[in-house]
Amino acid sequence: MISLVLYGRNDNYGYNLHKRAALSLNCMAEVLTGQDDEILFVDYNTPDDFPTFPEAIQDTLTASAKAKLRILRVRPEVHRRLFAKKTHLIALEPISRNAAIRRSNPNNRWILSSNTDMIFVPREGRSLTDAVAGLQDGFYCAPRLEIPETLWEDQFDRTDPARVIELTREWGWRYHLNEVVYGADTILYDGPGDFQLMLREDMFRYQGFHEEMLRGWHVDSNISKRLCFVHGAVGDAAPFVYGYHCDHTRQITAMHKGGAVENSLKTFIDDVTEPGIPEQADVWGLANEEIEEVILTGRTQVGYAAALDKVLQPRLESPILSYYKQGYFDKNPAHAGHILPFLLDLFVNARSGHRILWVGPRGQMYDLFASALKALGNGHVIETWDENVPEADAQALIARADTFVVNFGVPEILPEDEMSGLLEKLWDIDFAEQTRHEEGRPRRVVALNAVHTSGETIITSIVDCAKTPFSCRLRHGFVKSRKHMPALIDAREKMMVTEHGLVLADGRPATRPQQAGSPIRDAIYGPYLHLEFGSFRLDVELSCDIAERDAEQQTREGRFARVALKVGPRLIFARPYSATELRNCKISVDFAISRQTGLGSLEFVIGSNLAGSVAVDSITVTRTDGVTSAADMAPLNCLPLASITDAVEGYTASGLVLRGGDELEGRRTCLYGPYITLPKGAYSLEAVVRSGSSDKTMPLQERFGRQDRSEIFIDVRDGEQGLASVSAEVDRMGETRLLLPFNVGEESNGKLLEFVVDASGRWPVTMKSLVVRKIAERP
């Protein structure tokens, strides 16, 4: 008898949508008593990895509602391709209603167009189907009566529709709710779209709702006026039914806010002169689109659990222990069986035949996922991108993928050489997705073992990721659109301070004054910007509150501030600045984020042992038009960047003074660091040292006959192994230069390099510089 047409989207539109929709659907099913009666819900443009709206609330629906409900899913791809450029709206009323009408049960005489916030109360009896059974052909509207939010939210049990209908009938009179509001003759009642009863044959004869009405409002008034040309007037449904509307205007929605864009009244109401729309005769109701139908039997959710039951054997007998804290970065094993439920969850609601491109190693994680996808039974396809895939084939894999799954290593994070290969693939995906962004159809990227790992640093630099919990070990989202990245980023408010820093009254971060002889202490750090591939310029303005005379004195004492710029672990720029320079200091650094530099968060660090404060007046990052390849590394003095031990006296104008010892034998570690990464190539580490702690020390030693030997030892390490080492006796009368060549090859590429300086001997030694420079590309 009746095909009741509704539409919506799984986005919680308006206030407490879940309850009022469940109330509405259950009460509608309660009054539809015919064998062929049905409720058609068009789920329009819900994101692909979300369930439809009725699926999301199915646990609150009655058995009768589930049995009568047919869900027609219109995927985002259809909206993007056909309508996204024509409207600002993301759920389209005429398209949705027509899609339902075209696919409605042909045995039914009537189409009832309504919304998911209505409760229908028959004036006599309990059946709306019986009430309309004897109606003459025509077009009917019912009055819309309002129910205050507190009544339907507080007093109605959504799982007891019969009681809700009886309470609504009673309270309409008891609480003076029954105000019938008339509108224009062509609509009869205000708010006509909440109950429009139309002959199904009329809707097909006159091409349904007008599909050019894509801007919101008056869709109901248009169909009402058009059908008035057919039947002469709007039929009055008030004698057999009242429609009660669950008010939800506490929260202002896009359709209800003041000044909202609307369809033209002149075009679609005043100027309408005939019932049909012949121009849409061949296409109305998405006639040429294949629309999925979802039945609420719980098969999707049951299939998910069944798939996990099949592949996760045996069951877990004891908890998995992991540590999300300092010291465990890259060290927590990732368990494939634990990750699988979270990974599979992302594909349960995807369209049948969804294509997944697996990037990275396979192993147990791949086997479990592939088996679970097969058991899910949704027809999903998984392809792999191996190292030996030719470039042309790789581009074809990228082009036909719907989702990318990037495996950074399960159970262990990938070694650096394999991570570099994975980064190359991510670069190709990033490039492809920029075009997809322009077309409005980005694809999801899912990263495995990407929380509290080096994989997280990489993926968050490319992908705008959700902040997923540590336990699921996933980061997922969509590749960042370059054109939406701001050309200039003001980063001062993103800067943070350590206990050796402070925030001034005007909001500027600053270093705290330090006592004489203090080591350089990091005080300001940040802004941890995740930049995509490209060229940039960092501009920083610094100032300090040290008077000119005092600044000169502190410079003579060897006191300074050091600044360093890193992208991830890789050092881009570093330099010490004297107090004199810092009185009015501007720093500009041009740098590139490229395959050579790698990806990571941008970090700018300021440390100081000055007696005054150094403040960050401004810090900005600007995209530039320069080439994206990184220039060869300039010589870098690592001395002010290294960490020191208590075997160091401190800084002077001459350099870093290493203490003497009471024992003639034995090495003392004096400094280490700075933990930087270098691109593959050949390098030299050059150190300049001299005996003594000042220019007068050596003559005094000679005068008193103290000629004990001092030695310097330097090692280059990559965290796991020593790459090179050198030692030399310190010249008692002049400077000693140590030259230590070393190579960064495949096995050390991307690893943090450490330079360790030891000393032996009774007398102090001053280290004047420790410079690393690139000397050649490694063949």
Give the topology, please.
Elements: E1 2-8, H1 17-31, E2 38-44, H2 53-56, H3 63-68, E3 69-74, H4 76-82, H5 93-102, E4 110-113, E5 118-122, H6 128-132, E6 139-141, E7 144-147, H7 149-155, H8 161-174, E8 196-199, H9 200-205, H10 219-231, E9 235-236, E10 241-246, H11 265-270, E11 292-294, H12 299-311, H13 336-345, E12 355-359, H14 363-376, E13 381-385, H15 391-400, E14 403-407, H16 416-439, E15 444-448, H17 454-462, E16 463-465, E17 474-479, E18 488-490, E19 496-497, E20 501-503, E21 509-511, E22 521-525, E23 527-530, E24 534-544, H18 548-556, E25 560-567, E26 570-578, H19 579-582, E27 585-593, E28 601-608, E29 614-624, E30 636-637, E31 643-644, E32 648-652, E33 655-658, E34 668-672, E35 674-676, E36 681-691, H20 697-703, E37 711-717, E38 722-729, E39 735-744, E40 753-760, E41 765-776
Parallel strand pairs: 1-2, 1-4, 2-3, 6-9, 7-10, 12-13, 12-14, 14-15
Antiparallel strand pairs: 3-11, 4-8, 5-10, 6-8, 15-17, 16-17, 18-29, 19-22, 20-21, 22-28, 23-28, 24-27, 24-29, 25-26, 25-28, 30-41, 31-34, 32-33, 33-41, 34-40, 35-40, 36-39, 36-41, 37-38, 37-40
